[in-house]
């Protein structure tokens, strides 16, 4: 699909994330991939293994694309399918293509075939790493929560999210100066380079058990020349601040 200025919402599903037992690395990975491909993530949500919570999260989304990750296994607490179906107002039905693949490729039968249930009209997203298939309905993409599976499946559909301006590249500038020291330079750069997105991120650097604060500046653009020029322009002005 081609287009400009697309937005996305990411929804991670799992009680284990809400309890702090598992760190949600999926959202960070997917947000970065989408950003480089021209899709701006405007919201990231985490909900538990609860059909109503998933449904309400889906209904609250106004983004061009919605990604739901987790809860596609065959166990009692894997209710993402049901939550997505309710969220989009469709019935859950057995997908014949998914059922056939589970039976023929993995010898799965009985209650495990729950993994072939999807909202009516869904398209399968193949899982090259694991068993449970993902699915797509309109602008909603549903993927497993296992990082290796999610990443492998996204790679299979990544070309769908490449936009007219092309893949965006990033550059970083590191400085010992604080944000307030270079605030005017940053504000000027944002106005000067309208095709380059910029963000400044303070971080703590520990050396010899002493903590000092430093600054990272991220530059992102689909125009490599503008990106190169903006980085050089910023580096020169930060140096003399």
Fold and architecture overview:
The protein has 241 residues and is of the alpha/beta class. The protein folds into two domains: 6-161, MoaB/Mog-like domain (Molybdenum Cofactor Biosythetic Enzyme, Chain A, 3-Layer(aba) Sandwich); 169-239, Alpha-Beta Plaits. 34% of the residues lie in helices and 29% in strands. It is built from eight helices and eleven strands. Strands 2-1-3-8-7-6 form a six-stranded mixed β-sheet, with helices on both faces. A hairpin with an 8-residue loop joins strand 6 and strand 7. Helix 2 (25-36) runs parallel beside helix 6 and helix 3 runs parallel beside helix 4 (80-88). The longest helix is centred in the C-terminal third of the chain and has 16 residues, at 224-239. The mean pLDDT is 90.
Element layout with pairings:
Layout lengths: L5 E8 L1 H4 L6 H12 L2 E9 L3 H9 L5 E5 L10 H9 L3 E3 L1 H11 L10 E3 L3 E3 L8 E4 L2 E4 L3 H11 L11 E7 L7 H10 L4 E11 L2 E12 L2 H16 L2
Parallel strand pairs: 1-2, 1-3, 3-8
Antiparallel strand pairs: 4-5, 6-7, 7-8, 9-11, 10-11
Helix pairs in contact: 2-6, 3-4
* Strand arrangement across the biggest beta sheet: 2-1-3-8-7-6
Task: Give me the Rg, rounded.
Answer: 21 Å
Number of domains: 2
Percentage of residues in strands: 25-35%
Query: What's the CATH H-level homologous superfamily of the largest domain?
Result: MoaB/Mog-like domain
Number of helices: 8
> Looking at the structure, what is the overall shape?
elongated
Query: What's the overall average pLDDT, rounded?
Result: 90
- Tell me, what is the CATH class of the largest domain? Alpha Beta
Q: Kindly state the number of beta strands.
A: 11
Sketch the major β-sheet: 6 strands, mixed
Q: Mind telling me which CATH architecture of the largest domain this is? A: 3-Layer(aba) Sandwich
N-to-C SSE string, H for helix and E for strand: EHHEHEHEHEEEEHEHEEH
CATH topology of the largest domain: Molybdenum Cofactor Biosythetic Enzyme, Chain A
Helicity, in percent? Answer: 25-40%
Structural class: alpha/beta
Alpha carbon gap, first and last residue: 44 Å
The low-pLDDT segments are none
């Amino acid at each position: 699909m081609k287009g400009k200025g697309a937005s996305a919402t990411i929804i991670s599903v799992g009680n284990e994330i809400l309890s702090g037992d598992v760190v949600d690395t999926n959202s960070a990975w997917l947000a970065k991939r989408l950003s480089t491909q021209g899709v701006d993530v405007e919201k990231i949500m985490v909900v538990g293994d609860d059909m109503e919570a998933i449904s309400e999260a889906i209904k609250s989304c106004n983004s061009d694309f919605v990604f739901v990750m987790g809860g596609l296994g065959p166990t009692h607490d894997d209710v993402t399918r049901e939550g997505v179906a309710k969220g989009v107002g469709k019935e859950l039905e057995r997908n014949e293509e998914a059922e056939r693949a589970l039976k023929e490729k993995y010898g799965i039968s009985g209650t495990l075939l729950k993994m072939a249930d999807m909202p009516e009209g869904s398209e399968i997203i193949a899982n090259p790493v694991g068993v449970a298939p993902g699915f797509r309905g309109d602008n909603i993409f549903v993927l497993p929560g296992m990082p290796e599976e999610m990443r492998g499946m996204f790679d299979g559909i990544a070309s769908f999210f490449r936009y007219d301006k092309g893949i965006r590249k990033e550059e970083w500038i590191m400085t010992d100066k604080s944000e307030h020291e270079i605030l005017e330079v940053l504000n000027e750069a944002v106005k000067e380079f309208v095709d380059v997105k910029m963000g400044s991120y303070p971080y703590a650097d520990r050396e010899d058990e002493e903590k000092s604060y430093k600054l990272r500046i991220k530059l992102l653009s689909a125009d490599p020349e503008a990106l190169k020029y903006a980085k050089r322009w910023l580096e020169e002005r930060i140096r003399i601040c």
